[in-house]
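User: Predict the structure for this protein chain, please.
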Amino acid sequence: VSGKSKVVIPGLVNTHTHAAMTLFRSYADDLALHPWLKEKIWPLEAKLTPEAVYWGSLLACLEMMEAGVTTFADMYFFMEQTARAVTESGLRADLSVGMAGVDAKAGQKALEQGSLFVQEYQGMAEGRINCRLGPHAPYTCPQPFIIKVLETAQEINCGIHIHLAETKLEVAELVKETGLTPIEFYHEALQKVGMVPSLAAHCVHVNDRDIDILAQDKIGVAHNPGSNLKLASGFAPLQALLHRGVSVGLGTDGAASNNNLDILEEARLAALIHKCTSGDPTAISANQALRLATIEGAKVLDMDDQIGSLEVGKQADLVLLNEDSPHLYPKHDIVSRLIYSARASDVDMVLVAGKIVVQDGIAVTINRQEIMRQAQRIVEEIW
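Assistant: Here is the predicted structure, written as structure tokens:
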């Protein structure tokens, strides 16, 4: 492998997405979260088949790997199909079967399916697949159901992936109903069951007590600046989270609400947004942003002993970027150029577990043209 005119960085980590939602890209834009979900996304998701999720997940894998992402955390359904896509692409993934518990019978069925998935797929794809249970959010999962999910997670020795405090409306309605914020609601469930490794997406509308709870319960946070901007959900207090010792990584959320899966872009957004919201141009430096996209994301997924940095003994998840482009000249600070100037199209080569999965900017483990063709066919059939 030649490194001439290349920059080598650890593989990028996407700590929160819904891979198969690439199928919904550009379908329903310019809406707030709750009408977007209830009026547009959920009705169409009801039509998805295992085959659709497979091709949608492959499309996501293709997009992510060509953008330098080597590990991603996913929550969706028909998760066996996403695992199949991960296996074929050569990527590394943290996979969760999404579930809601408003309907007790449907919730129990989803929990049973999720438990079976974890037990069958944990460590699959030569150890590249990690599994969790995925209770969607407090507004779709009553606390007794979340407690049951946590108890199951303890029994089968896995973690949790959940959405918490994404919008003001979500927080206000839960406080009105239960007297608890989403973070307090989940904390109370954890207190009844015991600690379970947890990944919480968003955590946008959190107060000081919420942040203390996140740190105390060692809940990792997936910060999704692009999706939060597009849905006008708000700005997560990233600096406060980091200052109080909360582990934070970057996520894209699904392509339906972003609308891409580019972690380099999320790193740039994280740096720019929090400079502006804080009024401090030194907030979230380029170095911090790169760490959020790599080692800090690995910590959030409890994988920092394997990935996230270039160290002897860790997995060889590497990205080589071509720096011989006008927008990366002149060659001053390399990290600054990566965060503020580089693009996904600068990715030249990607290795996962020492195996080349992208060469000359093109995925070599899966059929690029066939994936795009099949994704378009699926969409035309469903719509």
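The first helix runs from residue 33 to 45.
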